[in-house]
């Protein structure tokens, strides 16, 4: 049997731990609120971008995705984190990319992977290491334009001969639920089957200049 003094010390130690974890919870709640506010401000821009890039597709294997809309010789860019302890946020993305690569290989389509985040790099190195061509790690949060520009430079350094870029990421629903989706970014063309912004009217030769600026 523990003595009365030992029990009192254990109770005091437990109360101290409770104070620390309570403070950590408050800090995490404040960070989460800030991230949610930034997300709400960013969503209107993403809605506008759908007019150019098209909508996102769900990466849900229960629905039996065929990935028919992904062209041959695509560059897959999964977005993961540098740190863990975040549930299945990274593992779901890695498994989804593995399934995507397997399906594209079955359809005789080639692809490469440029992963963002150290956790994704280590997981995909084991799963689809032969497709991994580049990785961007030590990505600081929260994101801003400078970070997006730096990541874009890393992706474009993989080469310019890819037919499309496929961004695979988590879509926030609530703190406990994230949906995995992917968005296909194709070269912006003024004419043809993949004509960008067909709902807008432009003067002759102006559309090429506009699309060149938007691509940049």
UniProtKB/TrEMBL annotation:
InterPro entries: ATP_synth_F1_ATPase_gsu, ATP_synth_F1_gsu. It is a peripheral membrane protein. It comes from the Eukaryota. It holds the Pfam family ATP-synt. Keywords: ATP synthesis, CF(1), Hydrogen ion transport, Ion transport, Membrane, Transport. It is found in: Membrane. Belongs to the ATPase gamma chain family. This is Uncharacterized protein. It comes from Tetraparma gracilis. The lineage of its organism: Eukaryota, Sar, Stramenopiles, Ochrophyta, Bolidophyceae.
């Amino acid at each position: 049997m523990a003595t009365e003094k030992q029990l009192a010390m254990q109770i005091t130690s437990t109360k101290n731990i409770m104070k620390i974890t309570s403070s950590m919870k408050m800090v995490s709640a404040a960070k989460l609120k800030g991230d949610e506010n930034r997300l709400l401000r960013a969503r209107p821009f993403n809605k506008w971008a759908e007019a150019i890039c098209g909508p996102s597709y769900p990466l849900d294997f229960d629905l039996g995705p065929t990935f028919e809309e992904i062209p041959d010789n695509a560059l897959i860019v999964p977005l993961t984190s540098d740190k863990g302890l975040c549930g299945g946020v990274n593992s779901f993305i890695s498994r989804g990319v593995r399934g995507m690569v397997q399906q594209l290989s079955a359809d005789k389509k080639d692809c490469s992977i440029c992963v963002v985040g150290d956790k994704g790099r280590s997981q995909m190195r084991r799963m689809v290491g032969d497709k991994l061509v580049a990785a961007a790690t030590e990505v600081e949060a929260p994101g801003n334009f400078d970070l997006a520009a730096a990541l874009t430079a890393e992706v474009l350094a993989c080469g310019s001969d890819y037919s499309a870029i496929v961004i695979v990421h988590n879509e926030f629903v609530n703190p406990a639920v994230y949906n995995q989706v992917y968005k296909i970014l194709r070269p912006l063309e003024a004419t043809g089957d993949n004509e960008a912004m067909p709902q807008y009217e432009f003067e002759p030769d102006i559309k090429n200049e506009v699309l060149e600026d938007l691509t940049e």
